[in-house]
Amino acid sequence: MNAPAMIEMNLDEARDWFGFGVAGNFAGHLEQAGEAVDFSNVESKSDAPKGIFPWYAPGHGSFLGEFPLSHDALIVPKTMADDGPLNLQIEPEVGLACRVDWEGDIVVSLRPFALGAFNDCSIRRPNARKISDKKNWGPASKGVAREFFKVGDLTPDGPTATLRLLCHLRTADGAHHEYGVDSPLLGYSYYGEVLLDWIIERLANQKGSPDTPLEDVGALMVACGRPHTVLIGIGATRYTALGESTYLKPGDEAIVRVYDTADAKFSELRQLVREP
User: Fold this and answer.
1) 80 lies in a domain?
2) Which residues make Cβ contacts (< 8 Å) with residue 160, sequence separation at least 6?
3) Cα–Cα distances in Å, from 101 out to 198, 209, 225, 228, 230?
4) Residue 128 and residue 37: Cα distance in Å, rounded?
C-alpha cells in the first residue's frame, strides 16, 4: 500500500474554514479529563461519541470568531472572567479537513481530503457552561501541523490504516515525557464513514440545551454563511498517567504527531507554550 502524499496546511486559507470537534470519541478520555460528568444528561449509544462542539466560527461576533490556529505557538490565556485556574492541557487529536456539500441549510455530505496532527488544547474549567467555553481564548489557542496527509479514503483497510497518533511534552528544563498514549487511528470509537455519517446526523439534529454542554453547531455553521470547508478535531486519545495529571507551563513544548508506520513520512505539530 502506498503511503499518503503530504499537503501544506495553509493558515490563510483556513481562516475561512469552520472548526468543530467531537467529544468522547476515544474510550476513557472524558473520564481522565474529569469531564464525563458534564455529559450525564446527554443520551448516546454506549460506544458512540457524546456530541460535537464549535471551536472556530469565521465571521461570528462572539469569541468563536477569533482565529485560533497556529503552527508553532500556544499562548497562555489571560485570566478568565471567573478567575479560575488556568489549567491548560494538551488534547492530542487527529484534525480532519473536509469539503462540505449543502442542500439549503442542511449538510448532506462531508468529503475528507486531508488529515494531520491537531492540538485541541483545553482550559480545564469544571463549571464551564459549554465545551466551547474551554476551547478558544484567541490567537494561538489551537495547534495544527504544517503538513497534513492527503487522504480521501478512510476505510479500515485504506491508506490511513497504518497511521498512529502520539503526544509528548518537553518541559522547560529539557526533560521529555510521553503525554498521550501512542494510538492507532483505527482505535477511535467512530472513524471513517461511520464517523462522517454520525457527524452529518448531529449537525442536523443536535440542538443543545441548558442542561448539557452541547450547542447547535449546524445552526452556527448556517449563521457563518454555510462554509464549504471544515476542520474537525475527531477526538482526543487517552493520556498517560503523567499527561492526565500534568498541566502546561510557560516554556513547555507540546508535541503532537500523526505518523505512518509503513513509511518515514509524517505529520508533526510542535508548539511552544508561552505567555502573551
Assistant:
1) yes
2) 4, 115, 149, 151, 153, 154, 185
3) 15, 27, 13, 7, 11
4) 12
Strands (E), the chain: 6-8, 18-23, 51-56, 69-70, 73-75, 88-89, 92-103, 106-119, 122-123, 142-144, 147-150, 163-170, 176-184, 229-236, 253-260, 266-274
Identify whether 75 is part of a domain: yes
| 41 grid coordinates | 444528561
Query: Is pLDDT at 16 greater than 50 in this prediction?
Result: yes
pLDDT of residue 114: 97
Neighbours of 222 (CB within 10 A): 17
Residue 182 lies in a domain: no
Query: CATH number for the domain including 270?
Result: 3.90.850
The residue among 15 and 42 whose pLDDT is bigger is 15
Task: Give dist(CA 130, CA 42) in Å, integer.
Answer: 13
Cα(58)–Cα(69) distance, rounded to whole angstroms? 12
pTM: 0.92
Cα separation, 227 vs 212, in Å, equals 26
For 124, 210, 212, the CA distances from 129, given in Å and listed in that order, are 12, 8, 8
